[in-house]
Design brief:
about 300 residues; alpha/beta; Arc Repressor Mutant, subunit A; D-Maltodextrin-Binding Protein, domain 2; seven-stranded mixed β-sheet; elongated
Length: about 300
Amino acid sequence: MYLETLKVFCDLAETKSFSKAADANGITQSAVSQQIRALETAFHVTLVERHRKACALTPEGRLLLEASRKILEIYAALGDQLRQTRSVIEGKLRIGSIFSIGLHELPPRLQMFRGLHPEVEVSVEYRRSPEIYDMVRDGEVDVGLVAYPQYRPGMKFEIFEEDELVVVCHPKHPLAARKTLMLSDLNGQRFIAFDPDIPTRKVIDRRLRRHRVELQYTVEFDNVEMVKRAVEINSGLSLVPRNTVQSEVEAGSLIAIPLAGERFARPLGAIFKPGRARSLVHKALLAALRNGELPSSQARAA
């Protein structure tokens, strides 16, 4: 009984919201309040300072949070160790992914993962990058897949691939015959961009400013699929990850031209809470993301 209550307490501490903690555990806000009061009664201390729109931990609450995380991690690790004696990976795995990874990098890896571990029930949700961080933080997903992963309190990340950025254009574009391009070659060109808050767009903008390249922005989109469609009708050129345009290049509807000089690639990462990293299911997924490499323990068992 106390394990479930400690998890509710940890979720409340991380989200600072009774409603989010309730949603994460499939219970009512009233039930969250009752469990927190039960903890306070059991330890004879005040753990949470309740405010109108949020809540904060007392010093005693922060001490219990640290201990609760350790207890829950030990319990999760024990379950993994017991399951490992049967050499079976099973359970549920919830993944949150940005659209480009979910549509291009994830499918072949997920197919391999499901083939190796049919006992795992996998679900995938597609969101924009800021939402993925929130979903991992709030426990709505176990693993988040984003580009240019960043450190956030209470989270870790692991890079599993770096995807080269290439210039893409219509086959009849004046630059289409070039084998390589310098960033300076893009100066003055009509350009189809990602929305300003997309991490890839921020990195592209910084690189262009460094090279003093000015573009004529024609339109902005929040996903790579719309960017590609605009390039296909010759509305301008763009910079996109190479993996996302393989099918269009093979079909001849787009031309992909690598950049000469300094390497320009976007790192793709898996973000998760530290306790999740000990799960056999999550280790197996990270192995699949790393180009199909199996964890050593599973490789020996295969």
